[in-house]
Amino acid sequence: MDGDIGDFLRSRRARIQPEEVGLPSHGRRRVPGLRREEVAQLAGVSVDYYIRLEQGRGPSVSDAVLASIARVLRLDDTEHAYLRTVARPRRGKKDRTPAPGVRPGVQVLLDGMDRMPAFVLGPRMDVLAWNTLADALSGFSHMPPAVRNIPRHVFLDPASRDLYPDWTAVAAQAVANLRVTSGRGDEPELNALVGELSVQDEDFRRLWADHEVRECAYGVKRMRHPVAGLLTLPYETLAVPGELDQTIVVYTPEPGSETAERLALLGSWATTGPTGP
Predict the structure, then answer these.
(1) pLDDT exceeds cutoff 70 at 58
(2) Where would I find the H helices in the chain?
(3) Which helix (H) or strand (E) holds 183?
(4) What are the CB-based long-range contacts (under 8 Å, 24+) for 142-145?
(5) What is the pLDDT of residue 188?
(6) In which region does residue 276 sit, left (phi positive, over 0), alpha (psi from -120 to 50) or beta (all else)?
């Protein structure tokens, strides 16, 4: 994704006003935020060096310089990590290739969490595996493998806007998380996904252009299930040891809560059918 570093740095420059960093604003400006020469001055590098970096044609940049730029642009830890990866993208053949599925032991782990919906995401947020309760909640087994992908579901499935009462926040979160992956080097399948969503959905196109970078490690998501009703679902994510870019997502409702009780009923319904024994 050539140009990611330039688009990212320009978007972050635009967030910061000169007076916030002790610089005079010089009246009306053609573009919002800091100028490139101001970032260079504050970061302690030459203007030419910074311009070449922003244009993606600079020399190998050191951690110290990137840290200085991150400080000036007030990047958080995730944004700083993203800057390091887009400034020094991986070239050529990757050392490892993501596994097409999950290890049998990971599936056993998912199945053992029978009171909590749990599933595994791959690097493009493809759903690779799930347990029975996650399937009852999201219907993964009924989706063709080609569309079993979180961003594709959120933006291209019209039902998602009814499923998520907070759809706008869910959509922004999905894009920000996808951005984290996009900075890790040239990924043809990821590029194809971004291209597909950009062409087919205006909301995705707008959010992708914002260059928000945020890992969705934990949080709360609300879902309006057709059988279980409105569910408030805290979630945690766990890295799968030994696998490239695989994470386990587990919904963790508080025991005894209304959502936990509704999930228990949903699990029973999924196991026995709507009529039960």
Answers:
(1) no
(2) 4-13, 36-43, 47-54, 63-72, 77-87, 104-112, 132-138, 150-156, 160-163, 167-182, 188-200, 202-210, 258-272
(3) none
(4) none
(5) 83
(6) left
Contact 246, 259 (CB under 8 A): no
Does position 98 have pLDDT exceeding 60, yes or no?
Answer: no
pLDDT digits (tens, 9 = 90+) for 107-151: 999 999 989 999 999 989 999 999 999 999 999 999 988 889 999
Residue 180's pLDDT band, with cuts at 50, 70 and 90, is confident
H/E segment holding residue 128: strand 127-130
Closest CA to 235 of 256, 216, 260: 216
Helix (H, G, I), strand (E, B) or coil at 267: helix
Contact 160, 167 (CB under 8 A): yes
- Per-residue HEC secondary structure of 196-260 comes to HHHHHCHHHHHHHHHCCCCCCCEEEEEEEECCCEEEEEEEEEEECCCCCCCEEEEECCCCCCHHH
Residues whose CB falls within 8 Å of the CB of residue 256, separated by 6 or more in sequence, listed in order: none
- CA-based nearest residue to 231, from 219, 221, 242, 241: 221
CA torsion sign for 213, 203, 146, 185 is negative
A 10 A CB-CB count for 31 gives: 10
CB-CB contact of 277 with 267 (8 Å)? no
Full-model pTM: 0.82
Q: Can you tell me the distance from the alpha carbon of 49 to that of 68, in angstroms, rounded to the nearest whole number?
A: 13
Q: Say what the pLDDT of residue 273 is.
A: 60
Edge-to-edge, what's the strand order for the sheet holding 229-239? 127-130, 118-121, 247-251, 229-239, 218-225
Going by pLDDT thresholds of 50, 70 and 90, the confidence category of residue 96 is very low
C-alpha to C-alpha distance for 83 and 73, rounded to whole angstroms: 11
Q: Tell me, what DSSP letter sits at residue 106?
A: H
